[in-house]
Structure formats: C-alpha cells, structure tokens
Design goal:
This protein has about 350 residues and is of the alpha+beta class. The chain has helices at about 45-140, 150-165, 165-200, 210-220, 225-230, 250-265, 295-300, 320-330; strands at about 1-5, 15-25, 25-35, 205-210, 230-235, 245, 270-280, 280-290, 335-340, 345-350.
Length: about 350
C-alpha cells in the first residue's frame, strides 16, 4: 500500500512511503519501509519488485539462524578433520613401530650370528698371533748374539716353538679367521644398513629412490622369519627400472606389511615371489605367495581399516589399510588377486614421475 503523509513541520512537500511486510510460512517476521520525497513516487511495478525482494529477504532472515548453525558445524568439522589427520599420522607411526617391534627379536638373532663370528674369530686370532709373536721374538734373539753356536741353538728353539704352536696350520688359519671376521662385520653392517633404509625418517620429503633397495632391505629384516619357516624367496627383478620419485620410508612400510602377511599366510614350507617390471610410464611390483589364499568376501574387505583375519591381539587391522593410503598418495594403485588354497598376489603400480604428491600424514 501507499499513502501520503501530511506536510512536515518544516514545510517540506509530503512524501510517499511503502510498507512491505516480511512473511514466511504465514508468519510476519518484519517489515521493509521505503520512502521518497516525491509525491506518488511508487508505482505498481515498484511495489511488485519490492514484494519479490521481500520474499527473498524474509527467507534469508528466516534461514540466518540455520546458516549460523551450518557455519558452526563447519568449524567443528574442520577441527575434527584436523584431529583426524593428527590421529591418522599417529596410527601410521604406531603401525610402523609395531612392525619394527615384531622384528626386534628376529633382527637381534640375525645380528647375533655374525657378531659371534667376530667374537670367536677375534679370540682365535689372538691365540694365533700370540704363538706367531713368540716365534718372531725368538728369531729376534739372533740379532743380539754373535756366536754361531748360540745362533744354532736359537734356531733349534724356533723349530720346537713352531711345532708347539702348529706354525704351518696357524699361518693358514690366520687368514681364514680374518676372512670370517670380515664376513661377520660385513653381515652386521648389511643388517644395520637394511634397518636404516627401512626406518629412514624422510617421509616429509620426496626422494629419488631405488625400489629394489627398499625391497631387499625389507627382506633382509624379515630373513629370520623366512628361514625359520623354511620359506624360499624368488626375485624376478627388471633391472631396467629407473629410480622413482617417492617417500622411500613409506614404500618400505608397504613392502613390510605385504611380505609379513605373505609369510604368515604360508603354512609350512612355501615360496614368495617378488617381481618388478618397467611398464613405460609406471613400474609394477608383484608380491606373490603360495599360502592359503583368501575368499572373495575377505578380498573385498582386505583394505578396510581395522579389518583383520588374525587372532585377537596379533594384528591391528591397519597394515593393509595404511598401505592402500600410502600407494594412493603416490598416485599409484594396489590390488589383490587371490584364490582359496592357491595363494595371494598383491600388485602395486607406481608412476615413474610424480609432479605433485599428496601431503604425507
């Protein structure tokens, strides 16, 4: 409606005013007032436009509380998402530490064997060197005597000493002991280096890495479990595979999870086959075992968080789920092929070059 107001006390001309109610669901929630200092300023068209505007304004005002609620929920979701990312990061690290914890006894055993070579070799070498030094000291007496008779006596004593310390055998065994010590030290260094490669703390930085080095390091750490169960490992490496851009530590964790599962899936003696291929724009890693295999139902859930076929307390159910996430972050793909009673095969595809990878949790 429109109406004229009486003249203002100031003597100015009368104005025109339009009052437009704000109505939502037959409920008045306010009013819009529009005024003009011109007579009969508002036409039906103006009132029509104002009426349409009022409908939208009324709805907006009615929903204002809802928008505030949505904003608050959005804020809470953002906080929850941040907390979830932090929890995910902790789960990843916990799973990795759990994997390392399970390997501790095996690694200690693996290191103990070559260290025993070193200890035993050092003791044997010490005894051999003591006998050889005794002979050399006796030879040294010749320089301090001038009499030919005394020299002959010393040489006879040297001859007796040689028999006493088994000179010829000792001379040969010294080099054998040195080789045993070298082998033990080399084996220990190899294990420690494998552990270092597996546990490398560079997850937040992209590195150019050799996939075969990562796989070999992981197999080295699992060697005690592999030998204990009488499992053979067959490697079919494609040596034309170049180094790839990746987070090496996290890929090693993927290899650890899959290989550990493969070992546990094999009951008694069996074979684990690791195959790598350069397929042009990506590389493929296949890890196949001759274990008990999986049903279709299990295969559908195998990458779900907290899903596990192991006994209570023997698995977190996070290993393969985390592995799936790691491969996705590398813009790759991981699949499982299995048949009950005929083993399982995990197939991993990774791009050779990745421009930008997702942030690592």
């Amino acid at each position: 409606f429109s109406k004229k107001l009486p003249k203002a006390k100031t003597g100015e001309n009368a104005v025109s005013i339009v009052y437009q109610p704000l109505v939502v669901k037959n409920k008045a929630i306010g009013v819009i007032t529009v005024q003009s200092y011109q007579k009969n300023a508002f036409t039906d068209y103006h009132r029509y436009i104002l009426g349409n505007m009022a409908v939208h304004i009324a709805i907006a005002l009615e929903n204002a509380g809802t928008y505030q609620e949505i904003a608050e929920k959005t804020r809470k979701l953002e906080v929850a998402f941040t907390d979830l990312q932090a929890a995910q990061s902790k789960l990843v690290q916990s799973e990795k530490m759990a994997s390392l914890g399970l390997l501790t006894a095996g690694i200690a055993h693996e290191i103990n064997n070559p260290i025993n070579f070193v200890y035993a070799g050092v003791d044997g070498l010490k005894l051999s060197l003591e006998g050889l030094m005794e002979i050399l000291d006796k030879y040294g007496e010749i320089d301090r005597i001038g009499d030919i008779k005394d020299t002959i006596n010393v040489l006879n004593e040297v001859k007796e000493l040689k028999k006493k310390v088994y000179f010829d055998e000792t001379k040969d065994s010294v080099f054998q002991v040195v080789n045993a010590i070298r082998e033990g030290a080399s084996r220990t260094a190899e294990i420690v280096n494998g552990l270092r490669n597996f546990s490398r703390l560079d997850e937040t930085e992209l590195k150019v890495a050799n996939l075969h080095t990562g796989i070999d390091s992981t197999l080295l750490l699992l060697n005690n479990k592999i030998k204990k169960d009488g499992i053979k490992v067959a490697k079919d490496y494609d040596h034309d595979i170049p180094k790839i851009t990746c987070y090496p530590g996290q890929l090693n964790q993927v290899f650890m999870n899959i290989l550990s599962n493969a070992i546990e899936a094999i009951q008694g003696k069996g074979v684990i086959t690791v195959t790598t291929r350069n397929l042009g724009d990506h590389v493929q890693i296949k890890i196949k075992d001759s274990g008990r295999g999986m049903s279709d139902e299990i295969q559908e859930k195998i990458f779900d968080p907290f899903y596990s076929t192991k006994e209570m307390g023997k698995g977190t159910g996070l290993g393969l789920s985390i592995s799936f996430g790691i491969i996705e972050k590398h813009k790759g793909k991981i699949e499982v092929r299995s048949q009950e009673g005929k083993g399982s095969e995990f197939v991993i595809s990774l791009p050779l070059k990745v421009a930008e990878l997702a942030p690592v949790a």
